[in-house]
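User: Reviewer 2 asked us to show a designed sequence for the structure in our supplementary figure. I'm pasting the structure tokens here. Could you produce the per-position amino acids so we can include them in the response letter?
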């Protein structure tokens, strides 16, 4: 495990979490949430008021034990958002700058090998001004890997690149991480990017951990309203707790009774927060043959339809909910089949497994 516990005043930090070894993890949050500060503290270039950084049992920092390993003694590579390439050096020389412990010829061979590993061996003689953004990022990656680090830290490495270049480099990063079985931690404000790349996700806000866990699980089931907002869940609502039994949890939302998955449990409060992903709100035709399996069926009126590329975002006012609005993400074909347009009447289904109760 990579165990990280940090406290600091400026910037304000108070985080504690663990990340798996040999996996790709993402730290996600808005600007100013402390993402880069966490990376810099792990790298040893930010000295925090209190710190404990332990990599696979190896103590890199522990304030209580007065232990601190300087940055140059930590077996890690760091790639910043700006790449940090020396403009007067070629790609090979930039990589070689991390290999000064080797004789000149061995340094040149190893630099070429690192460039080959990231797919730009033919660009060894070019200077940064002669490289595209994606090529410059690969040079920075090659330099970070030159000392064969056990941990690779990436600070928003793709944010300045165009969409197609980002997609190509996403694949390259996954391929590289798999082939080297290396621990990689990257920070980003792009949740979609984190969802595509990471196996573990940490959500940060205002220097605090909001939620952490395996990426697929976290993306589907936010534990708190704050986490749901950070992950841009379109539907957030409050409902009154009615009761629970073996079949699930019953909630009253306006005059509507909803069922959420979960066994019998004690009532937490009078009201609870709940959410459902826009893609999990389903359209249902009248007399659907398996209607009973779809969950709670609700009549609703469409109030807005917005085309969003290959999907459509529809907002509906749910009857008997007290004027509450739910948002649905639909395929264009479903919009046509169900005749969805502003003012049309539809029926929607909320499956118990799709409803997520939050603190």
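Assistant: Here is a per-position design you can include in the supplement:
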């Amino acid at each position: 495990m990579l165990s990280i516990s940090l406290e600091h005043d400026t910037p304000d930090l108070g985080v504690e979490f663990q990340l798996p070894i040999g996996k790709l993890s993402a730290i996600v949050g808005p600007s100013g949430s402390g993402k880069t500060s966490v990376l810099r503290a792990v790298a040893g270039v930010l000295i925090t008021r209190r710190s404990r950084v332990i990599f696979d049992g190896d103590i890199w920092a522990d304030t209580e034990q007065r232990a601190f390993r300087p940055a140059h003694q930590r077996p890690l590579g760091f790639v910043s958002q700006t790449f940090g390439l020396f403009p007067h050096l070629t790609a090979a020389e930039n990589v070689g700058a991390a290999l000064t412990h080797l004789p000149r010829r061995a340094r040149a061979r190893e630099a070429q090998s690192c460039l080959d590993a990231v797919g730009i061996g033919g660009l060894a003689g070019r200077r940064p001004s002669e490289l595209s953004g994606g090529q410059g990022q690969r040079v920075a990656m090659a330099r970070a890997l030159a000392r064969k680090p056990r941990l690779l830290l990436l600070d928003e490495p793709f944010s300045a690149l165009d969409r197609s270049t980002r997609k190509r480099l996403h694949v390259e990063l996954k391929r590289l991480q798999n082939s080297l079985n290396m621990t990689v931690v990257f920070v980003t404000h792009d949740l979609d990017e984190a969802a595509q790349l990471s196996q573990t996700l940490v959500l940060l806000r205002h220097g605090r951990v909001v939620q952490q866990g395996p990426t697929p699980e976290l993306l589907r089931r936010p534990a708190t309203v704050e986490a749901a907002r950070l992950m841009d869940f379109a539907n957030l609502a409050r409902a009154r707790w009615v009761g629970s039994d073996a079949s699930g949890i019953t909630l009253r939302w306006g005059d509507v009774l909803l069922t959420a998955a979960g066994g019998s449990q004690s009532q937490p409060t009078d009201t609870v927060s709940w959410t459902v992903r826009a893609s999990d709100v389903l359209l249902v035709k009248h007399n659907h043959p398996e209607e009973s399996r779809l969950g709670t069926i609700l009549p609703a009126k469409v109030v807005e339809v917005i085309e969003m590329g290959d999907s459509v975002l529809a907002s509906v006012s749910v009857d008997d909910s007290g004027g509450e609005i739910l948002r649905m993400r639909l395929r264009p074909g479903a919009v046509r089949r169900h005749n969805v347009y502003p003012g049309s009447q539809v029926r929607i289904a909320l499956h118990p497994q799709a409803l997520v109760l939050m603190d």
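For the response letter, you might also mention the following. The chain has two domains: 2-225, 233-358. DSSP finds nine helices and 21 strands in the chain.
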